[in-house]
Design goal:
The complex is a heterodimer of chains A (347) and B (132).
Chain A (H helix, E strand, L loop, with lengths): L20 H52 L6 E3 L16 E4 H4 L7 H6 L11 H7 L29 E7 L12 E4 L3 E4 L23 E5 L4 E2 L5 E2 L34 E4 L35 E6 L4 E5 L4 H8 L11
Parallel strand pairs in A: 3-9
Antiparallel strand pairs in A: 1-2, 3-6, 4-5, 6-10, 7-8, 10-11
Chain B lengths: L1 H15 L13 E9 L2 E2 L2 E8 L4 E8 L2 E6 L2 E8 L1 E5 L8 E5 L12 E4 L5 E7 L3
Parallel strand pairs in B: 1-10
Antiparallel strand pairs in B: 1-2, 1-5, 3-4, 3-6, 6-9, 7-8
Classes of the chains: A alpha+beta (347), B mainly beta (132).
Chain lengths: 347, 132
């Protein structure tokens, strides 16, 4: 087999062709465009990770709710006064004072049993009990804050105590659900409209039997983690735990519709009653007495989050759903009410 | 070479074309204005809300020297009027500033005032409130 060897080309025959300036510029431009396309995608991936973290927080709280139910045969109170069965007082007289919120009662089931075992359910446990305030100063309970939330980590009035970005859902205000009348309502003189129709409301002790709509159709916990823009375009932190922290409960012994004794100050921190659509974050005046939205704990600040397009909610069965901003207020109100008996459509 | 370059330029342009994002459309709003008097005197400072309870729609406008002006969604709206003064509560050491309403509840929490915001013409309203 004869091989024909080709003579090597002479160097002088070779044509050296580089890239012209224009070609280089075009290539660089394309690369720049590709990177510009990529960068928002990276940001979105980061936000997606934060959303997953937020969902996981709610999932943890769902497990904690169920573990609390397994132990006590009921869900924790949305906010309690320090009286039995939630505190150590036996009557409204010796239990008077601000009690603790649902977030305190769930601590043992969120790996925070050390705080819970030292917690004193007496002497305004959620506000002025110095033992309790010292216990949680500088402590952040991880599941209680959503990583997407731009709000400050600490509350306004108690130095070093955190604020939460989640809120218990107490029910819905009157007049939102067609063919159903919500009567368990208190219009608070300085707090907005508080309902007793949900799962976590003042001095509540609900159990699965009480959720006659089915636990898959009732919201227990939602997000409350973004700024509200007021009528002068200033950003305001008006979430339910902002002024006094995540641990404060209520100061009246009873639930709506009798949530007004013995004290005129019956605001309900760390709880929200549905009255406005999800993520309605603009155009509010500071008016807790009228609209229930404003500084110093309004009961009706809309569910809101920094996630695009809606909020995560925890249903009472322990599942986490993303509810869109465009969800009708009637559907939202049915979801917030545990026993309205209305057929719930797709949500 | 020239054709290759043009292809590259075309590719760049195609990649650079941003996807058009259409924002969610807010309901259209219409201009409203009017006057508010309390006991026949212009209400110096306050807030007027146009509400639709069932949908949660709410617009808040300032009342200055008895006059308000702004935009609201059309339809039969419930109107609520508030005039707030800041008071410091002293109970239980909280020393909260709370805002109390000077206007009786039949004009806000339990309001029976209504306004029909029309899509044509000037929406001029007049609300005469009585403090008792």
């Amino acid at each position: 087999m004869n091989r024909v060897r080709r003579a090597p080309e002479l160097p002088s025959d070779k044509v050296y062709r580089g890239f012209t300036l224009i070609e280089l510029l075009v290539v660089i431009a394309i690369i720049a465009v590709l990177i510009a396309l990529l960068l928002p995608a990276v940001q979105q991936a980061r936000e997606a990770a934060r959303r997953t973290q937020c969902k996981n927080n709610l999932k943890q709280m769902g497990l904690a709710l169920h573990n609390h139910h397994d132990t006590y045969g009921r869900f924790p109170p949305g906010g309690a006064m320090d009286q039995q069965p939630f505190g150590i007082g036996t009557s409204s007289a010796d239990g008077a004072g601000w009690g603790s919120s649902w977030m305190v009662y769930m601590l043992p089931y969120l790996d925070q049993g050390t705080i819970f075992s030292k917690w004193q359910f007496t002497g305004s446990s959620g506000a002025f009990n110095t033992n309790n305030t010292n216990l949680i100063t500088g402590i952040r309970i991880p599941p209680y804050s959503c990583p997407s939330s731009p709000l400050p980590p600490t509350c306004g009035n108690v130095t070093g105590v955190s604020a939460a970005t989640y809120v218990g859902v107490s029910g819905a205000a009157a007049g939102l659900i067609p063919n159903y009348t919500e009567t368990r309502i208190n219009n608070l003189q300085n707090g907005g409209s508080t309902s007793g129709g949900g799962v976590l409301f003042p001095n509540s002790s609900m159990n699965f039997r009480d959720l006659t709509d089915g636990s898959t159709n009732v919201i227990a916990i939602s997000e409350h983690g973004d700024y509200i823009t007021d009528t002068s375009n200033a950003k305001q932190d008006w979430r339910a735990s902002q002024p006094w922290g995540w641990h404060i409960g209520v100061k009246s012994a009873t639930s709506p519709p009798k949530f007004n004794a013995p004290d005129p100050d019956n605001r309900s921190s760390n709880e929200v009653t549905i009255r406005y659509p999800i993520n309605k974050k603009t155009g509010w005046a500071d008016n807790v007495a009228g609209t229930g939205v404003g500084s110093y704990v309004g009961a009706n600040t809309p569910l809101n989050s920094a996630h695009t397009g809606g909020v995560h909610v925890l249903l009472a069965d322990g599942s986490v759903r993303f509810l869109s901003d465009s969800l009708g207020l009637d559907v939202l109100a049915r979801l917030a009410t545990r026993d309205d008996g209305q057929v719930l459509g797709e949500f | 070479m020239s054709r290759r370059m043009w292809l590259m330029v075309l590719l760049t342009v195609c990649l650079a074309l941003p996807a058009c994002q259409s924002g969610r459309s807010e309901p259209r709003k219409y201009a409203v204005s009017g006057t508010v008097t309390l006991d026949d005197k212009p209400l110096a400072d306050g807030l007027i809300y146009f509400k639709t309870i069932a949908t949660g729609a709410i617009e808040c406008l300032d009342i200055k020297a008895g006059k308000f002006k702004g935009q609201a969604e059309p339809g039969d709206r419930r109107v609520e009027i508030s005039s707030l003064i800041t008071k410091t509560e002293t109970f239980d050491g909280m020393k909260s500033e709370t805002k109390q309403n000077l206007i009786p509840t039949q004009y806000n929490m339990d309001s029976t005032l209504t306004a029909k915001v029309a899509t044509t013409g000037s929406n001029e309203f007049k609300f005469e409130l009585k403090s008792k």
